[in-house]
Amino acid sequence: MTRSVAPIAAFILAGGESSRMGSNKALLELGGVPLIVRMARLVESAAAKPTVVGSPEIYARLRLRAVRDDWPGAGPLGGIATALRASESQWNLIVACDLPYLTKPWLEHLIHRAERSNADVVIPLNDAGAEPLCAMYNKTAESAIWLALDRGLRKVTDGLAGLHIEHIEPREWKAFDSEGLLFKNMNSAADYEEAKARIGERSKP
User: Fold this and answer.
1) Which of 66, 143, 181, 200 gets the most CB atoms within 10 Å of its CB?
2) Quick check: 186 and 25 in contact, CB under 8 A?
3) What is the C-alpha to C-alpha distance for residues 139 and 79, in angstroms, rounded to an integer?
4) Is residue 17 within 8 Å of 98, Cβ to Cβ?
5) d(CA 118, CA 148)
6) pLDDT score of 4 more than 50
7) How many Å from the N-terminal Cα to the C-terminal Cα in the chain?
8) Is-contact 160 141, C-beta < 8 A?
9) Domain tally for the chain?
């Protein structure tokens, strides 16, 4: 795959409180590896060595580069704003840490779509709506997102209002995931048990 001149940057959002899980979900293990390390390896294989948006003290112990959230308590929108502020790249892959079913082929496809796009954001659509926590963000989106946070907005899709958004329809991304699990996140203990079972099944010969 031919890359554009401007490099791609990658960020993993791991600054949430994990209140439903009861512990820091980024540190839960899948296949004997902390979820955040597993995600970092996946993202690096498809894009670039990622920066974690979260506690540098926690993630430095895992030898992960991290930047503190500029908007603690503001949710994922604050994490996205932090990533874009920290980035020196035109296009930025931004993913949540708790998406255990993402794959390298899908991420490569998402990146390729962005590199050919004139949009500010390239986001996949699911049946329930947009999936902004596995999307490509152009540096051009930074100021609008910061202004949205300053106005008190916290919902990610509200914070992206007014930006030029290119959507990837389900029929396109489901070619990479026939089960429709690609964007299923891990919010609860039940989700964690399901992920362990599914990832275990995938790893069997």
Assistant:
1) 66
2) yes
3) 14
4) no
5) 22
6) no
7) 29
8) yes
9) 1
Domain of 161 in residue numbering reads as 8-203
- Taking the C-alpha atoms of residue 110 and residue 49, their distance in angstroms, rounded to an integer, is 17
Residue from 146, 119, 151, 152 nearest 135 by CA: 119
0.85 exceeded by the pTM? yes
pLDDT digits (tens, 9 = 90+) for 80-101: 999 999 999 999 999 999 999 9
CATH of the domain at 66: 3.90.550.10
In a domain, 139, yes or no: yes
- pLDDT, tens digit, for every residue of 132-162? 999 999 999 999 999 999 999 999 999 999 9
Q: What is the rounded distance in angstroms from the CA atom of residue 48 to the CA atom of residue 85?
A: 17
Tokens of 165: 């958004």
166 within a domain of the structure (yes/no): yes
In a domain, 190, yes or no: yes
